Backbone:
């Protein structure tokens, strides 16, 4: 299996910063992409940012210019640097990866358990 462990969430005042980390482990042959989604209470889960193994990135319009996604491919780890946080960024942030397991022909999508980010006014 593939496990994703997130860390770095917490409580921060508006305008502050947080850095999320997510490490993938398990029977991984290769990782195609990693990313972050978030889900606020009463809302659907939405894309925050993704990064491919080649370094291409994609961001939600709502976080462009404030959040930066990066990855350490050697460590199968993805980071999300969140600056200028707003109360509307409050959500559970989920790490995700598209990874191919050893001995399995096709890649699959895996999710972490989520980490809470709360931004106060």
Residues:
């Amino acid at each position: 299996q593939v496990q994703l462990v997130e860390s770095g969430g917490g409580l921060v005042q508006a305008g502050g910063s947080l850095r999320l980390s997510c490490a993938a482990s398990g029977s991984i042959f290769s990782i195609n992409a990693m990313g972050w989604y978030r889900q606020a209470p009463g809302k659907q889960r939405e894309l925050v940012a993704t990064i491919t193994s080649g370094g291409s990135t994609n961001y939600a319009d709502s976080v462009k210019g404030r959040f930066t996604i990066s990855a350490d491919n050697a460590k199968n780890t993805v980071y999300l640097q969140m600056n200028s946080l707003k109360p509307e960024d409050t959500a559970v942030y989920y790490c995700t990866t598209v990874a191919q397991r050893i001995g399995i022909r096709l890649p699959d999508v895996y999710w972490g358990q989520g980490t809470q980010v709360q931004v106060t006014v």
Notes: The first strand starts at residue 2 and ends at 7. The chain has a mean pLDDT of 97. The CA atoms of residues 13 and 103 lie 46 Å apart. The radius of gyration is 14 Å.
